[in-house]
Amino acid sequence: MKFLTDFFPILLFFIAYKMYDIYVATAVAIASSAIQVGFAWFRHRKVEKMHLITLLLLVVFGGMTLLLRDPVFIKWKPTVVNILFGMAFIGSQFIGEKNIIERMMGHAVELPSIAWTRLNMAWSLFFFAMAATNLFVAYNFSEETWVNFKLFGMLGMTFLFVIIQSIYIARHIQEQPPATEES
User: What is the pTM of this model?
Assistant: First the structure.
């Protein structure tokens, strides 16, 4: 369910683009992201930072796209989001005792410290690669290709990266000694 709610605005953007154009799709993305944030607040009384950042950037870049009637701004939004996340992951190496990836997953998996550092840096590099790839597609292919890439390409790259990350994690999981019952 969380997966669907996370990709709700992207999916609606894609559908609106296929039915209308980039401007309608942009307006739909802004509205659906606002609904996503509002629903999370109404239901849980909290909103994920990722959703807030995405909404803010959608309003700014999407708003510029709509106001100036230039799709280049909405094409830059995924790049800016990915650069910000990449920088946050790198910055987390130097703030606090745990980096972002360990804060997000440390409750579920126990790994050596070096593994957490490598995972965190891998995510940083992944975000920067996604940012660069988005710009490459946006400037070298048609608008329709970019829209398809935004949904299928970025989603596919993310799934592939998560699979690779899972294999890496599986190799480094520290075994917990079995609990013994006391008589």
Answer: 0.87
